[in-house]
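Changelog-adjacent note: as of this version, every example in the card shows the full chain rather than a window. The one below runs 124 residues end to end.
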Amino acid sequence: QVQLVESGGGLVQAGGSLRLSCAASGRTLSRYAMGWFRQAPGKEREFVAGISRSGSTTYYSDSVEGRVTISRSNAENTVYLQMNSLKPEDTAVYYCAASNFLQADPQPQTYSYWGQGTQVTVST
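Full-length structure tokens:
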């Protein structure tokens, strides 16, 4: 199975940027479609972005479309989430997840492996 470790979270002012990384070990990341999810206190985990196994197709939630870019480097066994124009409502714990399907899906139950999460806090 694959182990996932997120990094890159932190405290940033509104309008700022962060780049999250998700490093995989145990198995090559090219076997999986990948997704980023987030969970704010008191809220359900929500889909942020996804990328197909090949990297040719990406998906974004309406709330981040145009501000966020997901990418992957199968050579580095890493998936990235570049977040720009951050807003206070983007504050959450961000998780990466791996799916055995070819395409990423916004439903969290389609993902078999999850990282521990990285905190993103956006201040006003």
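Structural remarks: The chain is about 0% helix and 50% strand.
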